[in-house]
Amino acid sequence: MGTRFVTATEFKAKCLSILDEISTKGGSVTVTKRGRPMATLGPVQQKAFKTSAGMLKGKVDISDELLMADTSHLWNVVREIE
């Protein structure tokens, strides 16, 4: 759908249906008042939603050496006295 023109009176009467049409079919609508363009409506450009699981993908790099290192000596172990 391309650009279409509607009068302010028509837009006032059919506002919600025009907005629904823009969201489903795309395109834009120019609202005119006494033949002069007053506003142009179009669909919003939204960014894709990133899940929290993929939010840091490509930003954090943990080496395999660090992941596989033995860190057991860093933890205090509480043992029961026999």
Describe this structure in words.
This protein has 82 residues and is an alpha+beta fold. It has a domain of 43 residues: YefM-like domain (YefM-like fold), CATH 3.40.1620.10. The protein has 2 helices and 3 strands; from the N terminus they run βαββα. Strand 1, helix 1 and strand 2 form a beta-alpha-beta unit. The radius of gyration is 29 Å and the shape is rod-shaped. The model has no long low-confidence stretch (mean pLDDT 84).
Pick out its properties.
single chain, 82 residues, alpha+beta
Name of the CATH superfamily of one domain: YefM-like domain
CATH class of one domain: Alpha Beta
Strand order in space, largest sheet: 1-2-3
Report on the biggest sheet.
3 strands, mixed
Specify the number of helices: 2
Shape: rod-shaped
Question: What distance lies between the first and last C-alpha atoms, to the nearest angstrom?
Answer: 81 Å
Q: What number is the mean pLDDT?
A: 84
- The strand count comes to 3
Q: If classified by CATH, what would the architecture of one domain be?
A: 3-Layer(aba) Sandwich
Order of helices and strands: EHEEH
Q: Which range best describes the helical content: under 10%, 10-25%, 25-40%, 40-55%, 55-70% or over 70%?
A: 25-40%
Share of residues in strands: 15-25%
Would you give the CATH topology of one domain?
A: YefM-like fold
Can you describe this structure in just a few lines?
By secondary structure, this protein is α+β, with helices and mostly antiparallel strands. The protein has helices at residues 8-25, 64-68; strands at residues 3-7, 28-33, 36-41. A hairpin with a 2-residue loop joins β2 (28-33) and β3 (36-41).
